[in-house]
């Protein structure tokens, strides 16, 4: 088996078509087709069910794809290790985050230290970011919970209270704080199931036997915020994730004491890589900054 054959197979399997693989690999489609055909003939297997615009993997293809993904992930990590040695003049940091707003102070600190490093920020849910770290798609990630996975390290960055995001035309916008009980008959906008902030909020409601009468679910942090901006209801977010807008006001929840946290997460396999070490140093500097007393 030649690496070019395996790489062509992997590209088609990952992207779903020979045409996309051609664009991705910068190799002609006939060459890709021949490499995969030679691979199939050499081992007397069928890797794809070939259909127009729909190349599905066979059972053998799915098994080979798992091995190929692991091989190229390790290869990519080896390249990152070599490239990142030295003065960190060039390279790319792939950062997966659940909340762009919460990650920006850390990204700013890293960028000021290493302006030659490209930073690619990808947003997604906690499960997507976690899996991306395990797959090697992300160098570092930011999650709202400490991940107990044996291959991941979680470094706590900060914790903030959960606050309400209230449309300015709502009576609550004129108050400093609100009790959870007062939300019973108010339209509430939730994130999707699995959101850490939603878990905190709903746990507090259950503990107080509070049942909400009106609820809306929006599958992203940005979407929830937009819904409140348009006056559809009251949402909630960790204070460090709040993005201000002229149409909304942040209001404290007086009896919600559990905090929303953020963690820098990275793979143990990459812990010694200089670009990861630098991000860890930025995180530690951020922690020290938060620990400093604020002047009155």
Summarize the structure.
Pfam families: HTH_1 (PF00126), LysR_substrate (PF03466). The chain has 296 residues and is of the alpha/beta class.
What would you give as the CATH superfamily of the largest domain?
Periplasmic binding protein-like II
Radius of gyration using CA atoms only:
24 Å
At CATH's second level, what is the architecture of the largest domain? 3-Layer(aba) Sandwich
Write the element-wise H/E pattern from the N-terminal end onward.
Answer: HHHEEHEHEHEEEEHEHEEEH
The overall strand count is 12
- Please report which band the strand proportion falls in: under 5%, 5-15%, 15-25%, 25-35%, 35-45% or over 45%: 15-25%
Domain HTH lysR-type: 1-58
Keywords: DNA-binding, Transcription, Transcription regulation
Protein name: HTH lysR-type domain-containing protein
Family: Belongs to the LysR transcriptional regulatory family.
If you had to describe this structure to a student in words, what would you say it looks like?
- The strands form 3 sheets. Strands 3, 4, 5, 6, 7, 10, 11 and 12 form an 8-stranded mixed beta sheet that branches. A two-stranded antiparallel ribbon has the order 1-2.
- The protein has 3 domains: 3-87, Winged helix-like DNA-binding domain superfamily/Winged helix DNA-binding domain (Arc Repressor Mutant, subunit A); 91-157 and 261-291, 3-Layer(aba) Sandwich (D-Maltodextrin-Binding Protein, domain 2); 160-260, Periplasmic binding protein-like II (D-Maltodextrin-Binding Protein, domain 2).
- The longest helix has 26 residues, at 59-84.
- The mean pLDDT is 88.
- The chain is of the alpha/beta class.
- Strand 8 (188-190), helix 7 (196-207) and strand 9 form a beta-alpha-beta unit.
- The protein has helices at 3-15, 18-25, 29-43, 59-84, 100-113, 126-135, 196-207, 221-229, 274-291, and strands at residues 48-49, 56-57, 92-97, 118-123, 140-143, 152-167, 177-178, 188-190, 215-217, 235-238, 248-253, 259-267.
- Helix 1 (3-15) packs across helix 2 (18-25) and helix 5 crosses helix 9.
- Helices cover 42% and strands 21% of the residues.
- The protein is globular.
- Residues 1-58 form the HTH lysR-type domain.
- One of its GO terms (molecular function) is DNA-binding transcription factor activity.
- InterPro entries: LysR_HTH_N, LysR_subst-bd, WH-like_DNA-bd_sf, WH_DNA-bd_sf.
């Amino acid at each position: 088996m030649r690496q070019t054959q395996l790489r062509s197979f992997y590209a088609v399997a990952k992207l779903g078509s020979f045409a996309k693989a051609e664009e991705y690999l910068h190799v002609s489609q006939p060459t890709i087709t021949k490499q995969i055909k030679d691979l199939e003939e050499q081992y007397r297997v069928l890797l794809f069910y070939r259909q127009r615009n729909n190349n599905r993997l066979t059972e053998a293809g799915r098994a080979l794809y798992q091995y190929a993904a692991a091989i190229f992930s390790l290869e990519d990590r080896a390249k990152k290790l070599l490239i990142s040695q030295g003065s960190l003049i060039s390279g790319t940091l792939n950062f997966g985050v659940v909340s762009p707003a919460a990650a920006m102070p850390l990204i700013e600190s890293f960028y000021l230290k290493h302006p030659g490093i490209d930073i690619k920020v990808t947003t997604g849910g906690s499960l997507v970011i976690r899996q991306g770290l395990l797959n090697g798609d992300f160098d570092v990630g930011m999650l709202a919970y400490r991940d107990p996975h044996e291959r991941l390290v979680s470094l706590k960055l900060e914790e903030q209270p959960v606050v309400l995001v209230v449309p300015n035309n709502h009576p609550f916008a004129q108050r400093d704080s609100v009790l959870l009980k007062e939300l019973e008959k108010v339209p509430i906008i939730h994130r999707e199931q699995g959101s850490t902030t939603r878990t905190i909020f709903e746990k507090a409601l259950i503990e107080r036997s509070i049942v909400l009468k009106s609820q809306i679910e929006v599958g992203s942090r940005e979407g929830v915020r937009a819904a409140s901006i348009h006056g559809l209801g009251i949402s909630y977010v960790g204070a460090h994730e709040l993005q201000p807008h002229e149409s909304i006001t942040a209001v404290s929840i007086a009896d919600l004491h559990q905090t929303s946290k953020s963690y820098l997460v990275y793979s143990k396999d990459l812990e010694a890589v200089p670009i990861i070490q630098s991000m860890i140093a930025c995180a530690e500097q951020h922690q020290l900054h938060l620990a400093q007393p604020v002047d009155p």
